[in-house]
Design brief:
Layout: H1 12-23, E1 30-34, H2 41-53, H3 67-74, E2 80-83, H4 93-103, E3 113-117, H5 125-136, E4 142-148, H6 156-161, E5 163-166, H7 172-181, H8 186-195, H9 200-206, H10 209-226, H11 232-243, H12 249-272, H13 284-290, H14 296-312, H15 319-335
Parallel strand pairs: 1-4, 1-5, 2-3, 3-4
Helix pairs in contact: 1-2, 4-5, 7-8, 8-9, 10-12, 11-15, 12-14, 14-15
This protein binds zinc ion.
The site of zinc ion has 9 residues, from helix 3.
């Protein structure tokens, strides 16, 4: 795992703040790192945990040399725990109890213990309530770092007990520099970064075939909207193909909505005549052709609807039903 702040791109102010807390021994026992997916919150949580566990931290950084740091790198640290969603994408009470059992023992290697709860928004009620009890009365020196993309899906009682640290989306320059480090060609990295809505993960997803086909599908859908070609057959066929994206379908659908939001946003930019760079650089002639087919009012209403469904996606049981309901709403909106 990552033990160093220096491996994190961007977020300078967050890192400075967190390092200061470490340096001054003022770290609260429960913290909540939040912000959109794919921007490095987990890397920051790991660097924080490593610093807390380190035997000889240097100026708010884990030393990288002590037994604790070495054990973290090797993935064998007995006082460090991560809780993450199970196969179905949910953190159940079983996972929380397992962690509670482990932290009931005294620390073995470090003076404290650290727990990272990744995708904390996926805890079901039973899991969240159980965690709440531990956060309220952890029994000993334990640090909890909850990492989430949505504070809305978390219990208010949990949020109120945590120090909140918000991570903003990354700049296109930062995203492109991460991609280049990962071996993406510079020009391609710059292009992907303009598309990525602040998220490295989004940029990486876009770089594979699947991402490209989702982006095409979103542009096509918008073309149908602009041409008022949404009929019920379209509702069923789109619902079926988008609702059946297979593994990680929610992630992909979320991406599809993001792509759709970008097309709409590009249309609004074209309306305003401003010089802001368009997301859909490669499809520029296609995007240009669509300009003016929908009114600004319709575009804004459409964008609102997309944002609403992006939020609803988190709680949706059936992506297919959600897509169908979305398209029906779009159809109504365009007919008004
Ligand atoms: Zn160390």
């Amino acid at each position: 795992m990552n033990i160093s702040w220096s491996n994190i791109t961007g977020h300078k102010q967050n890192i400075e703040r967190l390092k200061t807390l470490c340096r001054e021994d003022m770290v609260p026992h429960s913290m909540l790192f939040f912000g959109i997916d794919g921007i490095g919150k987990m890397l920051a949580a790991q660097a924080m945990a490593a610093t807390l566990l380190c035997h000889h931290p240097v100026d708010g950084n884990a030393c990288g040399e002590c037994p604790s740091c070495k054990a973290l790198i090797a993935g064998t640290h007995p006082d460090f725990f991560t809780v993450e969603p199970e196969e179905k994408g949910i953190i159940t009470i079983g996972s929380v109890r397992e962690m509670q059992g482990k932290i009931a023992r005294v620390p073995i290697m470090s003076k404290v213990r650290a727990v990272i709860i990744d995708d904390a928004q996926t805890m079901n009620d039973a899991a969240a309530n159980s965690l709440l009890k531990t956060i309220e009365d952890p029994g000993g020196e334990i640090y909890f770092i909850l990492v989430t993309n949505s504070t809305m899906a978390l219990l208010e009682t949990i949020i109120s007990r945590c120090m909140r640290e918000e991570f903003a989306g990354l700049s296109p320059e930062d995203i492109s520099s991460v991609l280049v480090k990962q071996g993406v060609a510079e020009q391609q990295a710059r292009y992907l970064a303009t598309f990525a809505d602040g998220s490295v993960r989004q940029a990486i997803l876009l770089n594979d075939e699947e991402g490209t086909s989702l982006q095409k599908s979103a542009v096509e859908f918008f073309e149908n909207c602009a041409g008022h070609e949404l009929d019920m057959e379209m509702v069923w066929s789109q619902g079926k193909s988008l609702g059946a994206l297979g593994k990680k379908e929610k992630d992909k659908l979320k991406q599809w909505f993001s792509f759709l939001a970008m097309v709409i946003r590009d249309q609004l930019v074209l309306y305003s005549g401003s010089e802001i760079i368009l997301y859909n650089q490669t499809d520029i002639s296609r995007i240009n052709k669509l300009t003016g087919q929908l009114s600004q009012h319709q575009l804004i209403a459409l964008l609102k609807l997309v944002r609403e469904y992006q939020g609803r996606l988190r709680y949706s049981v059936s992506p297919q039903l959600m897509v169908e309901s979305f398209i029906i709403k779009v159809k109504t909106l365009l007919e008004d």
